[in-house]
Amino acid sequence: MGNINVEVAYATPHKQQIIELSVTQGETVEQAIIASEIANLFPEIDLLSLSVGIFAKVCKLDKLVEQGDRIEIYRPLQQNPMDARRNRAVNAK
């Protein structure tokens, strides 16, 4: 099997990191995240409690990655988006 190129992305309100790496074809999302060593930069990453996705589409850790995939690790929401919009509208008045 050959290698494919993927990206692993994670962001906090103050910092974003995108790591490009080459993995063996047939590897899973979880294996790619581990290979990226992104948890060394963000120790709060816990794959058992956080959601992951590929190009903003949530997926499971056992999904096989494909050439060019952008694997994203999602943080829990701090506030419901509807509430945030409502608060901004009230404060804008």
Please give the share of residues in helix.
10-25%
Under CATH at level 1, the class stands as Alpha Beta
What is the 3D shape?
elongated
The overall pLDDT average reads: 91
N- and C-termini, Cα separation:
60 Å
Q: What features would you describe in this structure?
A:
The chain is α+β, with helices and mostly antiparallel strands. The chain has a single domain (3-92), classed as Ubiquitin-like (UB roll), CATH 3.10.20.30. 22% of the residues lie in helices and 32% in strands. It has 2 helices and 5 strands, in the order ββαβββα. The chain has helices spanning 29-36, 81-92; strands at 3-11, 16-24, 51-54, 57-59, 70-74. Strands 2-1-5-3-4 form a 5-stranded mixed sheet, covered by helices on one side. β3 and β4 form a beta hairpin. The model has no long low-confidence stretch (mean pLDDT 91).
Keywords:
five-stranded mixed beta sheet; 93 residues; alpha+beta; 2 helices; Ubiquitin-like (UB roll)
Write the topology of this structure.
Elements: E1 3-11, E2 16-24, H1 29-36, E3 51-54, E4 57-59, E5 70-74, H2 81-92
Parallel strand pairs: 1-5
Antiparallel strand pairs: 1-2, 3-4, 3-5
What is the compact description of this entry?
The chain is an alpha+beta fold and 93 residues long.
